[in-house]
Amino acid sequence: MASGGEGDFLVEAAIYLGAAAVAVPIFNRMKLGSILGFLSAGVVIGPFGLNLLDQEEGVFHVAELGVVLFLFLVGLEISLARLWTLRRDIFGLGAAQMVVTAAAIYVAVTAFGLLDRPAAAAVAASALAFSSTAFALQFMRDRGELNEPYGKRAFPVLLFQDLAVVPLLAALPFLAGGAEAGAGAGWADAAKGVGVIIGVVAVSRFGLDPALRYVASSGSREAFAATALFVVSGVAAAVAWAGLSMALGAFLAGVLLAESAYRHQIQTDLEPFRGLLLGLFFISIGMRLDLGAIAAAWPLVIGAAVALMVVKCGILTILARLFGADRPEALKTGAVLSQGGEFAFVVFTLGAETALFESRDATIMSAIVTLSMAATPFAMMLASRFAGGSEADISADGLDAPPSGRGHVIIAGFGRMGQIISQILLSAGFDVTAIDSDPKHIQNAERFGFKVYYGDASRLDVLLTAGAEDAQAVILTMDEPGAVNHAVESLRARAPNAVIMAVAHDRTHEMDLRPLGPTYVVRETLESSLCLAREALRIVNTPDGLIDDFIEQFRARDRERLFAQMDYGPEAGMDLLHRDFETDKSSTQTS
């Protein structure tokens, strides 16, 4: 029996992975995005398609962790300072979108008599006003447009919607009606939710950094990844226990860790889990698309989905224009947020459980939301066509730009050399992202006001998470020669035009390093030795005109010998070690 269960699990896992492996590349080739591929795969293998799986409900609950991880990683990219910067769009544009859209949908629902009870109509209208944070952000990320002007305009709206989930879920017991005991329980649940949120803030603010520092000091990548997953799942479980959105709690924890020194490593370790589980989430949504219900009421489902997208896109386009967006930016903002959101599924499920909705109504509304998600790529195509102009012509608001506007440089390894290089670049007005794998270096840097992130910079994914592909330069000063070599080789293969500057531990390391293709290499002790030799020549009364000449002759011979050793072995060019410098007598006499 056990073996049969294990066999069933492996068969179902193979079906999931196979469906994604087939559908996603097809939809990406058609430039429709990976999410639509996941949704389509879910429809095909689900109970209303080929019916290849038996446990779709359990799968949906597991897949929700993908949304949780996604919003946690989004939170990691948003500092509290940036949230304050975005406050106008969050509480202005975001709040206006929710209120106006929910009111418009409520009027339409009651006018057409789609829901009998006013409370049910109000909850449905509020749920349909939400857009899909996971869908919209992943869609923009797939297209490389997350930092485009319309992407930066859409994000605060999505953030406000995530915040608005809390009062809506807390209000469901009241709107569903019931005895006074139910109302009291509703207030108790609301108080419990507030208490848990405060607890998450306190623990994240004061407890996570020391815990992560302790785990990082062990040097175990596996333990650090496990701790990061524990943080996310623990926060999600605590918030879910309070009856609130797991995703909102995870987002909040991410925001509180955004300034942590361990941010980049956490992002790198969780990214593979996020992508896989988020894909599973959208497959499970596709599996819930009841083709029979759609067929029975197809004019209502299709018409309502189109109407929902038109209303949401129109309202948000107008509001975005009122908040300063130009026409292309406003239209794309409206289009990318025109779909229903994943939180609507949660609201409809809870509404059906509390008898606020009939089961058929919840199914129809879920189908409307799913169809609107599937139609979003087509809405973006239309928006891009009607918007006209080019995003390149639109000035960005500079939220993520370096303070000086001079460029972004990554320094991997914050030891003796990394500290000096960082000080010079920061004083010259450059934005520096420093990474080090030693928690002691990070603590010491913080004592002197430097921000250093924890991460293993020999790993390509850590460098990419820190922005290596977009950096002006990547400077590698790690102590371990193998780590430097691996970083140069992997980054050069990924970004052929990247400026990679590396410090070689010694002469042998430089010989190994140069064939890997760094832009510039310097040996760790070379320049300091030349500086000391220069001063020694001056003290022993060497004519000033010869000092620079001797140093340059040494550089030329050293380079010549290095290349000879790379070609013929370590003993090549040995004669250059014992040859006297050539002197210019005229320069000696004039000096």
Question: Would you give an account of this structure?
Answer:
- The chain is mainly α.
- It has three domains: 2-28 and 56-386, Na+/H+ antiporter like fold; 401-524, Rossmann fold; 528-591, no CATH class.
- Helix content is 69%, strand content 5%.
- The chain is built from 26 helices and six strands.
- The chain has a six-stranded parallel beta sheet, with helices on both faces.
- Helix 23 (507-513) links the parallel strand 5 (500-504) and strand 6 (520-523).
- The N and C termini lie far apart (95 Å).
- Residues 178-183 and 389-406 have low confidence and may be disordered.
Indicate the topology.
Elements: H1 2-29, H2 34-45, H3 56-76, H4 80-85, H5 87-111, H6 118-129, H7 133-142, H8 149-175, H9 180-206, H10 208-216, H11 221-241, H12 246-257, H13 263-287, H14 291-296, H15 298-322, H16 327-336, H17 342-353, H18 359-387, E1 408-412, H19 416-427, E2 431-436, H20 439-447, E3 452-454, H21 460-465, E4 473-476, H22 481-494, E5 500-504, H23 507-513, E6 520-523, H24 526-539, H25 544-568, H26 585-590
Parallel strand pairs: 1-2, 1-4, 2-3, 4-5, 5-6
Helix pairs in contact: 1-2, 2-13, 2-18, 3-12, 3-13, 5-6, 5-8, 5-15, 6-17, 8-9, 8-16, 8-17, 9-11, 9-12, 10-11, 11-12, 15-16, 15-18, 16-18, 17-18, 24-25
